[in-house]
């Protein structure tokens, strides 16, 4: 990169955050700190109003080159979600181009929106990403949850669990959200349980963002909860071999089952899944057991035999 391109890049990068340290710019452009110091001085000499604070970094005078296009808070939050989802979905080259484009978009945000993105970045994580179901309830709830986290406001909710089927009213202090197995989840402190709980966002029957606020800093970081969940949750490795005619039935559901990988083995496709519930996995594929065979674990084979026997007995009783 020649110096003119680097100077332009530094100016653009300076507009993406309130303050940026010299070491961050040096890492970003692959040059030494001394080079960054010279480049910043050159920009100052051309009239760019750069403020340098010891131990803090560089910043531009607020409003410098403020463009006519303005973004709302919701649009600024959408940038974070899009960046994290695209990072998991795109190939490396396309992802690089997307990040470069997003830097240019962030550069025209006002200081308040830049601060918002900085606060929210650690509160949104994508563990894996696959096509998200277009459920209206999830979409409606998602924005309310984002608003509550960004404004540190308490949520008043009605939440329904799947198994067992129960509906409860919950008052929550949201810590953050994460995406896994094609669903968005929220980790929050629950006033009802007096502890932290994980909630699937599409299972909220009602969500109200209250005016009462809470102190986000009193809660641990989102990543800490995810590390703990990973340690506590026992995942089973499931290996099945599927006939060619059965693959089409698995394409739209395999990610919800914890899909990991697949490979061709003779005339079959061997697929590997990681799932916390053998029963749930089995009931999800029971309709196509004539097109696949279970390789492991052994207890899943035994459960299949028992489930098929129960089905026969139930049908014979009618």
Automatic annotation (TrEMBL):
Location of the HTH deoR-type domain: 3-58
PANTHER family: PROTEIN PAFB, PTHR34580
Domain of life the protein comes from: Bacteria
Organism whose genome encodes this protein: Algoriphagus iocasae
InterPro entries: CBASS_pafABC_assoc_protein (IPR051534), DeoR_HTH (IPR001034), HTH_11 (IPR013196), PafC-like (IPR028349), WH-like_DNA-bd_sf (IPR036388), WH_DNA-bd_sf (IPR036390), WYL_dom (IPR026881)
Protein name, entry field: Putative DNA-binding transcriptional regulator YafY
Keyword tags: DNA-binding, Transcription, Transcription regulation
Molecular functions (GO terms): DNA binding; DNA-binding transcription factor activity
Coiled coil: none
